[in-house]
Each structure stands twice: as structure tokens, then as C-alpha cells.
Design a protein that fits this description.
Elements (H helix, E strand, L loop, with lengths): L1 H47 L2 E2 L7 E2 L3 H7 L2 H33 L5 H13 L2 H12 L5 H8 L16 H26 L3 H9 L4 H30 L2 H6 L11 H10 L4 H29 L3
Antiparallel strand pairs: 1-2
Helix pairs in contact: 1-12, 2-12, 3-7, 3-9, 3-11, 4-7, 7-9, 8-9, 9-12, 11-12
Length: about 300
């Protein structure tokens, strides 16, 4: 009996070892990319932030000069201000509208599933497609929006939506919110489905209004999801790049410049990789602060 058991065990071990090697083979590319980014790229980027380098010659140590240049550059503060405007718009208008629409769709209106799909479609559409499509819509010449205004006799409202410094940032923010609104609607909608119908309907039997039910029952139950969506929207407000780059490239006259487009120009236009690295280090620091704040909120409200 011993030889048979030994043979069986050896076959099992051989099969298990083969499966482990196969799994390791699939994991190695992802592990390699992770190590490349975490172990090499981020520390090297921090290193470059203290050097002057154009990408060709040997990096030259300059200490904190790159950060001094950033903090004394009005364009940097203008870009940071615009990012802040994106964040505030995301955490107020977009977050509130996403919650409102999710509540409306959860009320049982006809075609709610179709509306959810339409709202989520921009989220899964590549940024370059969204940007190019809205460039055509907001174009001064033959743009869909201006043509529509003219068709309805509102030609006096036609504007250079992306070329006017007073309108460009608002136009880009509206496109940004259109792109990401569906993300919050879907998450809020999924969370609302987890709330028992009896719990939603019980306050009405006691004379509570719909607004009171939402305020005192629904919103407290949605607090974990609200926090998740708010953090994601805040991160999007910091990282926004593609839509701004495609729609305005930071113009006109730096009216829509954000930190990511500012970084891009330092690296790929002026070939100042040291300054660009310092800029990306600041963005990384902001994201770390957000992640830390998120963990603190999780501990405080016992969301995990």
C-alpha cells in the first residue's frame, strides 16, 4: 500500500507545483510592473525633484530650488486654484446631483434602468472620445450648442465657450461633471437597493415627509458610500488632465490650467524634468493626504 500512496502523493504534489508555477507566471508581469513603479519610479521621481535635468545630460543637484520656483510661480498657484475649483464643484454640485438623481431613479420611475445606463455611459467612454465630442459641441464655428441656440432664436446667447477666459473653465468643469456624474449615481443606486423597502416606507406611516425620510433615514445609511464617492470625486479633481488637455490645453491665457497640464508643459514643452518631478511629487503628496484622511474617517465612523 505504501508505494501506491507515495505515487499518488507525488502525483498530487507535481500537479500542485505545476499549478503554482502557472499562477506565478501570470502574476510575474503585474508584479514586475508594481515593483518597477513602487520600488524604482517613485523614489527616482523624488530624487529628480531635487535636481535640474533636461532628460539628456547628467542631473545636477539643486536642492529645494525646484520647489522654490514652483511656490513663486503665479502660474502654479493659478493651476492649483483651478484644481481647487474642480474639487469644490465635484464635492458640492456633482456629489449632490448624483445623490439626487439616484434617489429619483430609486423611486420607481419608468425606464430607471435605461437612465442609469445612459448616465454611466460617459464614465466608461475614453476621455479622448469625450473631449473630442465636446470640442465639436462647444466649437464657436459650427458647434452644436451655438447652432442649437441660433435655431431657437437665441443667437444672442452664442459664445466662444472654450476660447473666452471667462467661460472656458466653467465649460470644462461642466464637461468634467457630465463625464463622472454617472459614477456616483450608480454607487448611490446600488446602496439604495440594499436598504429594505420597509425601512424606506416606515417613516411615511408616522407622518414623515419624503424630505425628512431622506434626511434622517436614507442619508445616514448612505454615509459610507457618500464618503467613498466624495473621496473619488476629490481625487478626480486633483488628477484631471485629459479633458482639459483636449478641450483647451490649459488656455485661453492659462484660464483652465491645472496642475497636471502645468506638469505636462514643464516636462514635454520646456524639458524641465526636475521641475516636473517636483510638481508630480506635490500631487503624490496630496493623494497620500487624501488616503490618510480616508483611513481616519473609516476608523472614526467604523466603515471598514
Amino acid at each position: 500500500m505504501m508505494p501506491e500512496n507515495t505515487k499518488t502523493n507525488r502525483g498530487f504534489l507535481t500537479l500542485g507545483r505545476a499549478e503554482s508555477l502557472t499562477a506565478a507566471g501570470f502574476m510575474l508581469p503585474a508584479l514586475g510592473m508594481f515593483l518597477l513603479i513602487e520600488v524604482f519610479a517613485i523614489p527616482y521621481n523624488i530624487y529628480l525633484g531635487f535636481h535640474e535635468w533636461n532628460g539628456f545630460r547628467t542631473p545636477e543637484w539643486v536642492g529645494i530650488d525646484n520647489y522654490n520656483v514652483l511656490f513663486n510661480d503665479p502660474l502654479f498657484w493659478n493651476a492649483a486654484k483651478n484644481n481647487l475649483i474642480f474639487i469644490v464643484a465635484s464635492l458640492t454640485v456633482m456629489l449632490g446631483l448624483a445623490l439626487f438623481l439616484a434617489l429619483i431613479l430609486d423611486s420607481g420611475i419608468p425606464g430607471a434602468g435605461v437612465f442609469r445606463a445612459l448616465l454611466f455611459l460617459p464614465v466608461i467612454t475614453p476621455s479622448i472620445v469625450v473631449g473630442l465630442a465636446w470640442t465639436r459641441v462647444l466649437s464657436t464655428q459650427n458647434g452644436l450648442l451655438n447652432q442649437t441656440l441660433e435655431t431657437f432664436g437665441l443667437g444672442m446667447m452664442q459664445s466662444n465657450w472654450l476660447g473666452d477666459p471667462d467661460l472656458a473653465l466653467g465649460s470644462v468643469i461642466l464637461v468634467f461633471m457630465w463625464r463622472w456624474l454617472g459614477y456616483g449615481v450608480i454607487l448611490f443606486g446600488a446602496a439604495l437597493l440594499d436598504i429594505p423597502e420597509d425601512l424606506k416606507d416606515a417613516p411615511a406611516t408616522d407622518g414623515a415627509t419624503t424630505l425628512q425620510t431622506v434626511r434622517y433615514i436614507i442619508i445616514p445609511l448612505l454615509r459610507p458610500i457618500i464618503l467613498i464617492v466624495a473621496i473619488w470625486y476629490g481625487i478626480l479633481g486633483i488628477r484631471v488632465f485629459a479633458l482639459v488637455f483636449i478641450l483647451t490645453n490649459g488656455g485661453p491665457f492659462n484660464a483652465t490650467e491645472v496642475m497636471s497640464t502645468y506638469l505636462y508643459k514643464q516636462v514635454f514643452t520646456y524639458f524641465d524634468l526636475g521641475l516636473g518631478s517636483a510638481m508630480s511629487n506635490l500631487i503624490l503628496l496630496l493623494l497620500i493626504v487624501i488616503a490618510f484622511a480616508r483611513n481616519q474617517f473609516n476608523k472614526r465612523f467604523s466603515l471598514d
